[in-house]
Fold these 2 entries.
Entry 1:
Amino acid sequence: MQRTTSRRPLLARPVVVALAAAVALTATACAKTEDDTADNKQSETAAGAEQKVATPKAGGETCTIDAYGAEKIDLKNATVGFSQSEKEANPFRIAETQSIKDEAKKRGVKLLTANAQSQFSKQISDVQNLLAKGADLLVIAPLNSDGWDPVLQAAAAKKVPIITIDRKINAEPCKDYVSFIASDFVEQGRRAADQMIEATGGKGEVAILLGSAGNNVTTERTKGFKERIAEKAPDLKVVFEQTGDFSREKGQQVTEQLIQSKPGIKGIYAENDEMGLGAVTALKGAGKKAGDVKIVTVDGTRNAVQGVVDGWISGVIESNPRFGPLAFQTLDTFTKGEEVPQDIIIQDGAYNADNAKQDIGKAY
Amino acid sequence: MAEATLRTPPLDRARVLQWLQTYGVYAGVALLLVVNIVITPHFMSAENFRTQAVQVAPVIIVALGMALVIGTEGVDLSVGAVMALAASVTALYLGYGLLPALLVVALFAAGVGLANGALVAFIGVQPIVATLALMVGGRGLALVLLPQLEDLRNPALASLGSGGVAGIPYLILIAAALALLVAFVVRRTTFGRQLLAIGDSRPAAQLAGLPVRRVLIIVYVACALLAAVAGVLATARLQASDPTSLGNLMELSAITAVVVGGTPLTGGRVNIAGTVAGAVLIQLLTATLIKHDLPPSWTQIAQAIVIVCAVYAARGRGKR
């Protein structure tokens, strides 16, 4: 018994490996998706889609290269390191990384990139690797806000300026990092509330599909929405708040439960596009018509804006992922020795029935 | 000796526990139904029951396969990854039509099942470790094949997800048919007997001359195929292939359904009706909490309580 069982593996192992390899090889060889003929998902950016700074505040804190303690360099000859936080599996991250790469190419700057695959420890070592590979400047899309001390010390030792995009790191601006470029998530929530008030007429019951728990994007988008509703339309009641985990499937499932238990619901605020699209699928499945329940979402992906064109979604608040031009412009200004703001807030666009058709090219 | 002196009271307790293990899950479902009928508005409608059944169908299908694997004293952690793989392969091959795409999905799932089965049966890797490898690798492969969500517009797939016969969605019919099939296989076929014998004691089954390796491999392949069916159905319902989030934590939902349904993790016994009821119980629990707009963290706590109760009942049985 013992002997036979110990001899088998020698045969079985190559079989398993060969099987796995065969499966992996045949997988991509003759795949044919629905879109093979009409591929319209080009990533070219329509004119006017790049980020604009919202408020070049006169009184805002600024930072200069002297105050930061680095040396002036010409951006053209510099090497820029970019550390992405999450894997490029959603439109936002894809557009963000692409935008950084495009802008580096346009300016002829040497770019090193790394992706932390949503693991914070990997992001720390990613950034350390970028420094070791000779990055003169760093652009970081942080996964977490805390825990950056080892990296900041390493960067400070080499006098490498850091710009963080889309999420902030908890450190001292103009000492540990230069500036922070991002959207104002609370403001996004407020603007979503404005759209919701307009779509519903400011009366009735609405639901919120929350993002993942314990995420600052979720808390801030919720806070802004509720604040504005309370202030402008007290007759609009938030009667349902459940998490859809930022995913389409959960958005669909939760919406199915919602329209069962509260058939009179007038509006759904989804904190990202995917959950909003899940809600649309749920409403379609329940035999509702476009516009029966007003949906407002945040992000501005192409699918959601198409939903606005089709009439299923009332409004989409944009969260612009195209950080490339603004990040490099900030680095350029900074390395020339001029002053740059410490907090750069982006002005996000919005899509509704009036502009969705003509502006869909701006969606990502 | 202690047992002898305390004979009467513990016997009663044991009987209660055994009753709980066998029928507790049905009692739980009945209790939740009654509670909901009383406190939840709009609960008693065909539409509501259809929604709950459609949402639970993929979980039931995965749990059926999981019950078989647990019956052999194994566990399959790769079911969620197989669902994701099924989703991305469906999207990748839908250009040929629905049926060819489904065949390729079956091929991939069978591949994963074979790998799981081979690792467990031939190499003797612990099931939890073997399937853990494919849980990580399978989702990785799914993401390599299809890095991001893709909308699907195939009309046949759409009707599979939202259509039905005489008002009963295909999803429910498929889940019911598979449940009956698996129950039949476990109860009435030689294969079912062999499966349970292996779960009871693998060395004994081996000594008795049962085809242990063949049965194990077939069980893991069947489990992967069932997970793939669930993945395709979930994709059809969503009308989009989302390998990043589809099937996330599905392995845990499936194991929960099986354990709550009264199938012991020690193998040798499979309770298919209980497994279905276990999945329904968790679904009703989640639905109740969502409908009453309670924080999602409560759902997790409630699930934990149900699991602890189920395990407690199972422990009582194991000691006897």
Note: The CA atoms of residues 195 and 215 of chain B lie 7 Å apart.
Entry 2:
Amino acid sequence: MDILYFAWVRERIGLPRETIQTEAATVADLVAELCAREDRYAAAFADVTALRVALDQELTGFDAPLAGVREVAFFPPMTGG
Amino acid sequence: MAVRIQEAAFGAGAELDRFTADAPGAGAVVSFTGVVRDVDGGLRHMLIEHYPGMTERAITALVSEAKARWNLTDALVIHRFGQLAPGDPIMMVATASAHRADAFAAADFLMDYLKSRAPFWKKEVTADGADWVAAKDADEDALSRW
């Protein structure tokens, strides 16, 4: 599964994307798994209410299931326009 | 209908002239241009990051929704990414319709949604350092109008 990070999430974790093997059932499970890996993930995901997540480029929630998903992206609230 | 996500600068006037010339059946053309605002005279530049793929997809979906809700003959969205200087156009929206009410409403709708549903992130670089621009609650609240 490809995981992408944008804006300050990318800066805190220190990389724009990575490919991982995971059995996580939901986005929240994946976040818990990443946080357990290293402090920089725990720092980036400290407050998930300040974050947004997209699965295969569609905005969704942290309770969304990951079955069949190829690309997960984490980022702060968007500031377009 | 066109959606362009680009690093290159664009001329809002030339884009609007072209859009208007290519809008048969339109009696009204509305356009909005967003410009990099200086912050207390100290902005060196703005960096805009985006999510290639999702950006085009999200904006195309917004344009389709606008087209379904209002009677538009055409619509254009241009949004830049990369490094921009104060005063540079960041983005523009143009809508064309037979009468002005639809063009105004659709342009307003597209702007509200581009603010908080198109995956762009802005960073302001000043003499003091660099800071990500925080999303405003007001921008999220604006969506409830629609």
Note: Residues 6 and 75 of chain A are 5 Å apart (CA to CA).
